[in-house]
């Protein structure tokens, strides 16, 4: 019995039996341990994993084993993309994969799936995170207001012309702008509404047009230039460099 | 038949549907930039993200990253001073991420004319500490301590330094910021040392060094020792010594080491650790950074800034360091805004 063609039988919680190559199955440290220390001929029970999930996991293991062994001609970039598609599943399935990867001790899969969850959190506003993961908001309205106030930024203008107080984008402000003007975003700054063009991927864009909303809506808008933009997490944090008329 | 995720009314699970340790695995992989918004999700998340334990957990698993923090002149100065005569350089803090090649500027807090000249920078536990320096207008030494938290992206004021001290050594590690040497208001070189506890916001005095060290440089090695390198005594102004005093963080004792630095060379911002525990002078890496050098270790690579000659333009370079051997300097393209004179810097692990 050559080691390359050894097969291992796995039985899932819903009584499905899978027969897989040993090299694939022992990607799981748990299965490896049982196989090497238990009886290698009988079936290994994977109690906490369902047939559907195990099937997906075995696809993952097979892909990675084959790529590492050179059996499949796949570049690291292609494998990375394959992994990215592999985790494009609904949240319940993703969590089941995490639980199974943890129980079966498949480190790379656990890393991939947990990183996927982290990526789902990144870039979302707190309300969106709560909705996505079904987390109860235990901040009182007063506490939320206090946090919002804490997050005001006071900037020193280059040249010390004055300070500007920038508040975070409020949800209703954003929706107001999106409906009023094509993809524009509002920032409430020192009680003046400063509008700017918003593009979702603004990273390190050096300057952007900023229009100051005048008090009287009939007067023409004044254009200022913004020296540097940092794209913050889920909203845009602005560093202004312009002479403010205060 | 469909299954619904259990909806606990007062669920305190980090991520409902996952056991705590797996919820932690997911949150640990969240980059530092996302922490601020994530801490507003619920109290449990806020408490976790702000806890030192979580920081050390991420650090242990390798999810933190080292960024360079630089005190630099934002209205273009040179080593000799500002470009325009009579205009004081306006110092602020720039943060450089060598992986994404991204430059950011931190908001300056409470210093309308820029940071104090020659202020000292140190970092630990994801926080940046600014201490001392001279008021940019009056040139009076200040005892201010300010702490910037990368997670909350906010500044707070810490307890003032116990006395006015200039040109001292600074190093931070394990929640403590160590200072030693420098000189007092009468230009007397100091041998005293203090430590600032970040969490308790308290200062405590340490034992004294073996000699006075004015204009010395501090380096923390392996989270184990605080090295105070070179400097000079009151009566030997400018005669930089070749020895160092080393403070053991566990033992709480000082020991003196001889012959670790070239006598006569100013160590400010230039001291790094090389092969076999020998100190490296970053200014010597290349003639291009001979003047006004500043070196910051970022893991296996070092960010070095400096000029080739007095009054010359300031360049930025990356150097690979492997086992004390360094590669050739690789010049960095730096946005204009950040290409002013670098006074000092440190790395922050966030």
TrEMBL record, chain B:
SUPFAM superfamilies, per database record: F-box domain (SSF81383), Kelch motif (SSF117281)
GO biological process: negative regulation of cytokinin-activated signaling pathway; regulation of phenylpropanoid metabolic process
Limits of the F-box domain: 18-58
InterPro entries (UniProt xref): F-box-like_dom_sf, F-box_dom, Kelch-typ_b-propeller, Kelch_1, KMD1-4
Protein name: F-box domain-containing protein
Organism: Gossypium raimondii (Peruvian cotton)
